[in-house]
Each structure stands twice: as structure tokens, then as C-alpha cells.
Amino acid sequence: MKNKEDNPVTKRVLSLQGAENVRELGGYQTQSQQQTKWHKVLRAADLSNLTQEDIQFLTDYGLKTIVDFRSTQEILQAPDPEIEGVKRIFLPVFYEGDLEQAGGPEDLIQQQFALNISPKAVMQKFYKTFVQDEHSIKAYQQFFTLLLEQDQEKEVLLFHCTAGKDRTGFASALFLHALGVDQKTIFEDYLLTNKNLKNIEAKMNEFEIPKDLSQGILEELKDMWRVNASYLEAAFDAIDEEYGSMDQFIKQGIGLNEEDINQLKKIYLH
Fold it and tell me: Domains of the chain, with CATH numbers?
């Protein structure tokens, strides 16, 4: 069980027995020719099945803070383990009173069948809520507050949701952009999820899916358990429409001033 600090995007996965899609955000080059630091920020999927060996590995790796973007319902179904010396921060991205959103991907699927909306369109709309929903923006604001507090070397913050792909993927994109990583690299990091989530068909079989769907719709349904560049593009398009640019969203939406951005770079770049 080890991380691969070979800098290429495909070499940054932490191989844990009880969690998927656990990845380093270190080693990415910025447009100012700096690099994101290793052993500072990890992104991941659900941690509820971590083994004792996994927990020891993460403790030795420097884990100090876990940020959980999931809803109360998701956490009750699959709670994170208690890890001595590690803070757990609950930051639900969706408003808890909205069960359609708070329940997770299965509610999106049922919504799609009920309204006859294509799975891809459902996911694109889902991503736009990260930008347009006040509760979601507040969660990401608090996420950056936590990042700014993580100013000690070799102290690791890990953030996750259920699959580590949508709420987590958007958070990763914001974090990397704020540090000056170019958009091509941000999308490469985002799409790396597809190489690290397993048993998509098995996960689909957990839900009631009509037997008469076309192959095209079935492929789109699989994409609800994967990531697709068009999903993140939908969020970025919403940012451009609402704020004019990603830089303006970081400042006006997330609320970071120049001092905050410089401090973020001081903590996470070298």
C-alpha cells in the first residue's frame, strides 16, 4: 500500500483496501511554474469500509482532518470510522431538507425516469446546483476556510463524498484553480476518477432500472456512476454565466480575497 509520487496524473492513487478513488492532489504544476505539495490534500470516495491497515496508513501519512460532503442520510448508511487524532468535519453540500438532492444518486435516477430526462442532462443540472444553490456555495466557502487553517507542514486534509466524483470533483477543481493549475490539468484530475471506480454495473444493479432502455441510455446511466467532462463543463458554464469567470467566482462566490489566495498558495505550493 503506497502512493506513487511520479507526478503524471495517472500515478497518484493511494491503494487502500477499504476505499476507492483515494488520490493525492500533490505534484500538479501551476501556471507560475510552482507545484502543489504532496502530503497536504487527499480526495476520496466513501471511507466507511477502511480496514485497520488503511487507517494506520492514513495516520502515518499525516491525516489530521476529514471533510465529509455527504448528507446525513448517506452518513447514517455508511459512517466514516473514528480515527484517533483526526478531526471530522460535516459539510453537506446539499440542503438537508431537500431529500431529492440529499439522498444521493439513486434519487437522481428515479427523478430521471419519472420526468423522462436523459441521465446526462440530469447530471449537468446537478453540477449547476454547485454554483447556483446558496447552501452548496456556503459549504464550499467553509471548505476553503478549513484549507486556510491547514497551515502546518505534513498535516493532511482529506475531503470526500460517496463516490468521490461529483461533490468532491467540483471541490478539487475549485482548489486546483485557486492555486493556479491550468484547466486542462484540472479536467485530467477530474476524469481520473473513471480509472478508479470499480463495479459500475454491479452498482447499477442495486437499483430498479427498466429493462427496455436503449443501449445509448444505458451507457448514459453508467455515466451517472462515472464522471463526464460535460458535467464539469456545465458547472463552469454556470460560473461564467453567473460570475463572468472562475477567478470572479473564487472571489465573489467563495469569498476569497487576494490575501486569502496568496495564503492558500503559500500553504499548498512550493
Answer: 9-268 (3.90.190.10)
